Amino acid sequence: MTRTARWALLVVFALIVAACATETADTTEAPAETEAPATTAAPETTTTTEAPAETTTTTEAPPAVGSPENPIQVLFVPSVEAEVIVTGGDIMKAALEEATGLSFEVQVPTSYAATIEEMCASPENTMGFIPAFGYVIASDRCGVDVSFKAVRFGWGVYWAQFLVPRDSDITSLEDLEGLRWAFPDTGSTSGYAVPAVLFDQLGITPGEQVEAGGHPQAALAVYNGEADFATTFFSPPLTPDFDWAIGDDPEIPDELVESCAPNEEGSRLFCGPEDAQWRVLDARASARNDAPDIIQQVRILTISDAIPNDTLSFGPDFPADVRAQIEEALAAFAETEAWADSIGNQDFYGWTGIDPAADSEYDSVRALVEFVGFEPES
Length: 378
Prior knowledge:
CATH topology of the largest domain: D-Maltodextrin-Binding Protein, domain 2
Number of strands: 15
Helix content: 25-40%
Shape: globular
CATH architecture of the largest domain: 3-Layer(aba) Sandwich
CATH class of the largest domain: Alpha Beta
Order of helices and strands: HHHEHEHEHEEEHEHEEEEHEEEHEH
Number of domains: 2
Distance between the termini: 108 Å
Strand order of the largest sheet: 2-1-3-14-4-15
């Protein structure tokens, strides 16, 4: 190769190197131009905002059941005057709070159905004093669970009674065909469900229906002539020898009727002489202050078969440890004098005590619910 050729080759090589250097410079600058978006570092932005961390901090655990921020809701069905329930319920509330250190709130929903609705809607912090029919509906609907049943003067059961004017010529259930019927509430076991089943079985179709709003109010509807008959709860009278038995006449003996009247304090309804008094305990006694002569004006036509007593039940998700505290405290409260001023008051629910209850005890009522055709969801 000549010297001239060598020099020519060197020049070409130099030009190629220079061109490559230029291209390298150009290509290395391109990332520099695209680095500005890269420095926004989308992944880094996601890391700094930490959306999952924010979600965790905004979903704080709810206050503990029984705390002042989340008090236990004590629900009472409105079977008697709401003012009586609230007054007696507050006495129970104070006793339970002192015994357990928990916080409670007394509520009287507007109806039996509203009580069930509340227990199903707030399953973790509600306890309810509900009758057998309501309990079965609530249990089948959302899992409400029974804890205690009422005891009334030794009886763990009660009955439905059919009330008519004392001077009427009604002598049988069949005579109620087409007549105006007063009852407390469609959710009442003794006041509505049991009579409805009996009417269906006997082919009886009452006439106008009057939903009175409570057992004493239903009795008063007959007393005031607003209904031809009423259905309410029946508890046996306290006889002088405490010997009333199933199968005995549910009504006060005829010879004692004219003597029936409230005592001086207006707290009881008695019949007969002081040394041999009968104490009336059915729904008519709760109406004694509005109608002191209600026994003289309203009589018992007949009563139904026995019904399991009303319940204290808990929401399906109620904490087991808190429930155990309340059960212990309530059992102790039932042994105190204050109990008689609370749910033991005759004008309240008249519970003279409580006994543990099992769900299976209410299977007969489930059969009744099925017969009536009530749907838990409705």
